[in-house]
Every structure is written in C-alpha cells, then in structure tokens.
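Thread: Aryl-alcohol dehydrogenase-like predicted oxidoreductase, structure

OP (GT): Posting the sequence first so everyone is looking at the same thing. Length is 353 residues per the record. Can we get the structure tokens written out before standup tomorrow? I want them in the notebook alongside the other entries.
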Amino acid sequence: MNTVRLGQSDLLVTPICLGTMTFGEQVNEADSHAILSQSLARGVNFIDTAEMYAVPARAETFGATETIIGNWFAKNPGARQKLVVATKVAGPSRGMPWVREGKGMTAADIVASCEGSLRRLQTDVIDLYQIHWPERHVPAFGNLYYDPAKETSQTPIREQLEALAGLVKAGKVRYIGLSNETPYGVHEFVRLAEQHGLPRVATVQNPYCLINRTWENGLDETCHRLDVSLLAYSPLGFGLLTGKYDESGITGPNAPQGARIASYESVRKQRWGRPEALEASRRYNALARANGMTPTQMALAFCYTKWQVASTIIGVTSVAQLEEDLNAWGTTLSPEVLKAIDAIRWELRDPAL
C-alpha cells in the first residue's frame, strides 16, 4: 500500500487503519496483540483507539483498549516508532459518568484525558488526538435533526483549541482531529485556528459506508476545500455489509452469536439496528454476490477507492477477519457496479445515518 498525507500535517499513513474498539470486550488481550502484530506485519502503519473504548462503553472496560495497546508496545520494542497512533478524548458524558464528572468537556478535561491516554498507551506522544464527538449538541449517533433547544455547550471551540494547543506545545500531541462532526464544526475549528494561530485540524473521523453516505451531503466539499482528511469508520456498517445477517436478521435464535450488533441492545438502538439499514444492506450484499464479490469485498472496495476517503478504519475480532479486510485492497468496482450502488442509494437513501 501507498501512504497518504493527512490534511496539512506531515502524518503519512496507510489508506487502511486498524480500529481497536473491540479490544478488551469482544477480543481478549492475547488475541488483540496477535491482531496488532499481524496488522503491522502486513504493512498497516496506522491504528486508532479512544479513551472510552472498549465498546459498548462500560465502567469496567473504560480505558481497556488503550491499556492493551500500551502493553503490546511494551512487549514489542520498536513497534511504536513504526506506527501513527490516533486516540480520542470523549466528548460530553452521554450517560457515562465514569469518563468524567459533569456534562461538558472543559479545557481541563481535555488535558486530563490526554494524560490518561498517554499513561495507558505507554507512549510519550499521541500522533493524532481527536475530539470523539462535539462538545456542542449535534445530530449524531442516529439523531436526524439539529435542535437548538437541546444546546448545552459550555466550552467554546476556541477554548478547546487552546487546550489542544497547549498539548501540542508540550510535545504530548503532534496533530489534532475531530470525529462525528458537522460542516459548521469543521469550518469553525479551521477558522479559529487560522485566526488565532492555533493548531489546525488534520482529520475528521465520521461514519462512511454504503448505508451511510451522509458525508457526501456537504462535508465532502467542506473538507476538500479546507484540506481536511476523512477517516472513514464503520465501512462494513457494523457488520451488516458482511452479509452475515442477511438470512437470520440481527436478533433471534439464528443470529450470529457474539456479534456486536446482535449482542448489545445499546448498539441496536442506534442507527445500525434499524430495519431499514438491514433491508438496504441486503440489497447491496446481493449486488456484490451478483458481481462475483463477497459483500465484504464490495463494501470495503467502495471506501478504499473513493476520492473522499484518506484512510478506512477496519475493526476486526480475529486475525482471519483482518486478513479478509486487508485482502480486499486492490478490488475495483466497475462503472456498472458503481451505477447500481448509486441507484440503490437513490431509492433507499442513508438508512444508517
């Protein structure tokens, strides 16, 4: 694989990034370490995590993923220097008091969270430090509309940027990014950074897949013109685009055992558990099979080959899944397949937004 530059930073990453939110919940430490080692051996130089992981979030597993990665670094001297490491500071609590007290995300919260991530990761610096979700109230995680009446923001964007600037100046963070953001948020972070000489965001990590292409409804132009890179998460639609739920559905006696969406009610209540999302996935999966591809191949190839995507974040629970996802690199989609994909989207839109 080639490498791509993230935004206006000097971070050069592979167009596939290893996501790790399953580490510490679905995947034990030994298996997590095996996945990390094989990913590095296959040439992936980019990993993504977050302070709130593993998922689904619980007090018992808060920080577990970063701890597992840090232990792997300790066991593998030299591995840290070969990797670009991204992690995230959690936004306002969203019902997770174990993350922090209060409903906001203050400058002090950002600094304290960074210090915690550095300790757990057993590293001196975080290459890309991202705000996991906005401190502002925004339509995200399955919410369709912005509602000004729900606004509870307590920390201005400039104050957040100044806290991040302090971490950059101290050498604890190299570059910053956003996640689950809106066009307004990206523009405001860039505007204030340029106006006040503060760090400029390099990336936005948002969902992007066949059943959620909302990125193309404005954020694509925003980030293209501002030179901010997309890190696409959930390219397989939380497993819906692998085809494993096509016959069984996501719940019931015949549903795959141990799969995240089938196992956790909190996940099903969000965008991925909607009946419309499963219906659309079945259509895309059938299209893949009709064109000689597995559903996973087509869904990943869609992200791997889109101009909008700098790096695609793949989340796996085994080395075998890792190999399947990496082996999809190089798959191309014909103009006819891309036209058929757009026809399905025109009919069913973005059911997992």
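GT: Both are above now. Quick notes for whoever picks this up: The chain has one domain: 4-348. The longest helix spans residues 275-290.
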